[in-house]
Each structure stands twice: as C-alpha cells, then as structure tokens.
Amino acid sequence: MKNYFHFDELGTNYRREIIGGITTFLAMAYILVVNPLTLSLASVKNLPDSMRMDHGAVFVATALSAAFGSLLMGLWAKYPVALAPGLGLNAFFAYTVVLNYGISWQVALTGVFLASLIFILLTLTGIREKIINAIPAQLKHAVGAGIGLFITFIGFQNAGIIVNNDAVLVGLGDLTNGNTLLAIFGIIITVILMTRGINSAVFIGMVITAIVGMLTGLIPLPKHVIGSIPSIKPVFGVAVTSIFHMPDQIFTMQMLMVVLTFLFVAFFDTAGTLLAVAHQAGLMKNNQLPRAGKALFSDAMAGAIGAVLGTSTTTSFVESTAGVAAGARTGFTAVVTGVLFLLSLFFYPLLSVITSHVTAPALIIVGVLMVSSLGEIDWKKFEIAVPAFLTVICMPLTYSIATGIAIGFIFYPITMIVKGRAKEIHPLMYFLFVVFLLYFIFLK
C-alpha cells in the first residue's frame, strides 16, 4: 500500500494521510446536510411536492456519490482530492433551473448527466488535460491564490464574522453571538497549533472547537449515534429514464443552455481545484499536473454516476486543501474520506456536531496557506499583474471560481498582445478567450 501511493517519495505516512482524510471529510461534511436541503428547496415555502426532491433520498445519493468519486480519485488518480456534489452547482440546479426556469428536477438531473457524458468525452480525447496544461504558470498561481481568498470568504461567512449588508454589500457580523465566538475561538486555537508547527493542527482545532461547542451548549449533543438509512429509490436512475419519458422537455434550446452552464462551471471549478490542491501539496512538476488525465476522468465519471444516483454535479472539492494542510499528500487520503462518506450513511446523527462554525476556522486557515502562491507572480510586469489580479479578486467578489478564471483569462491575451508578447500565448488560450466571451454574452 505504501509503495502504491508512493509514501516515501512524497514524505508521508499512514498517520498523516488518515488525519488528512478525516480533516477533509470534516471540512466537507456540511454538504451531507446542505445538499438535501438545497435540492429539496426546503427554504422555499408553498411549493408543490412534485417540485421538491426527496430529502432522504438526496442525502443517500450525496453520500454515495461522494464516496464513489473520492475512492476513484484516490485509488486511480492517486490525488488527495475528495469529491462531492458541488456547492453552487446545486444552487444553480435548484433555484435557477427548477425554480426559475420551471424545468422539472427529473429533467434537470438529465442535464447534469448529459454534461457529465460530454465531460467524459472531452477527458478521453485529452482536450481537458491539454487545456489545463496550456494555462501559464503565473495564472495557475493566481487561480490557487484566488481560491484561497474565496474559501476564506466562505469561512468568514460560515463563522458569522462577515455578513450581508444592504448598504455596502458586506459588513462585520455580531461578534457577541455565541456561535460566532465559538468560530473565533476555533480560529485562535488553530492558529496557535499551526504556529507551533503541529501537523494535525487543522484537525485538532476542529475537534477542540466541537467539544467546546457541546460543553457550552452552543452545539446540541447528538440524540443518536446510529440512524436508519433512507431509501434512494425516489431519485435513483431518474436522470436516465427521463431521456425516454420526457424527450420534448430535454431536447430544447433552453435545456442546451442549462447543459452548457453545468459543463462550463464544473470544468473550470474542477481545473481550479485540482491546480490549487496539487500546488499546495507540492505535486506540480514543470508547470504540469501529473496524471491529469486520470484525475479529470475520475471527476467526470463521478459527475455521471452522481447524476444516476440522484444528485446535482459531483465535483472535486476545494476543501481538500484542508486535508493537505493537515499533512495529506497522496490518494490514500481521498480513500479515507470516501470510506468516511460511506460510514456517514449510518452515523448521520453524529455529524450534527460538525457545524459550519466548527469548520469555518479550517477554511480560513487554509486560505492563509493558499495565498502564498501570490509570491510566485511577477507583479512588476503589468501585462501579467492585471489578469492575475482579476483572477484572484473576482473569485470571492463573484462567489464563483469559474467566473474569476473567465475574467482573468479574457484579459491575459489582451495585455500580452498589447505588450508584444503574443508569441508566448498558447493557442488554446485564444480559444478560451473566445469561449469565455461567448459565455458572458450568451449564457449569463
């Protein structure tokens, strides 16, 4: 096992990989709660039941798709990257496609399935890998730093430190709120542990924060440890059967736009996440992503299987960086995370103690580690600084990894051409320039 995952070569061991896997799982566990609530449109009142996906079935589909994707990524691609139904893509699925467009959730699942099949085709032909490897090193560093700021922003939101402000968009939250104070406590503890150089600092910080939360009554003690597994039948296989039962709703121009949006966002969210995790773990070689084809295929296959199981797009999770921060370096970490997602089917009540306020410190600290890649960018060259800065800043401001990448990549060929460095631009970057422009013109 150690030889298969190259433990010695990457300077790791079972303890670090297991802790990394547990840390990644804890940082991602919220999706087991959030995804069923989102896809069932639980926050929207007065909707007919036909518009809502079954909450229990989606929970099972979420856990199974996360387990499958993480195991495949770990065992085959050997990356410390875990997968699950993506946050943001599930909101697009529920609130835009189903609620606003009026497309049934059955047909929407078919859209996810079709987008994933296109993903698989692009991966098998090597197009996805070529696009990722064509991205200049400076922009790859910018993508990693941008994701760092983005997940830090998410962490501050989850902690209640940053909140909505109608006058200026965002503002400081109520720092006297008990849960916010718990998150601040978690940040301080994790910072102390990290500063002391403890490898498991992120994981230990979450455990201590959860315990303090229960002792202070901020986090309710779980009523049960083991619970029954709901039936997946209401959503299983619907993505495929809808092709035959509702062809008039699937083969439409509106549905084409939905499929293309799923395709675009998942493509560049995945690319950004893989680059960020690989860079943080020190796995990049000569600006190339080793085993990129296997990693991308694992991601694409997980999306297709997830749709068949009955959930929105399954994709690589940026929270995997929390596991890397805890010492993870190999695919064994993703295997551990995948097994924990399977076990979560039985121990769902126990997950209630891992609240967003408990995981917020991990996201914030990981953001600190990821923005270190800003030092690799040549800020003195304006033609590089502009696209790099826009990539970094637009991710948190637009709340989208894909949009940040798109804006930065549109400006890159513009500044390089004006500077007289057109020959240094890879032909695929021109292609992406056109694709991103069309995305903003038509799909947005």
UniProtKB/TrEMBL annotation:
Tell me which domain of life the UniProt entry assigns to the organism this sequence originates from. Bacteria
Q: Which GO terms describe its molecular function?
A: purine nucleobase transmembrane transporter activity
* Broad class of where this protein is predominantly found: membrane
Per the record, a Pfam family? Xan_ur_permease
Q: Where are the transmembrane segments?
A: 18-44, 56-77, 97-122, 142-163, 175-194, 201-219, 225-244, 256-280, 330-348, 354-372, 384-413, 425-443
Q: How does it sit in the membrane?
A: Multi-pass membrane protein
Q: Among its keywords, does the record have Transmembrane?
A: yes
Where does this polypeptide localize?
Cell membrane
Q: Tell me which GO cellular component terms the UniProt record holds.
A: plasma membrane
* Family indicated by similarity: Belongs to the nucleobase:cation symporter-2 (NCS2) (TC 2.A.40) family. Azg-like subfamily.
Report what the protein is called: Guanine/hypoxanthine permease pbuG
Q: Which organism is it from?
A: Bacillus smithii 7_3_47FAA
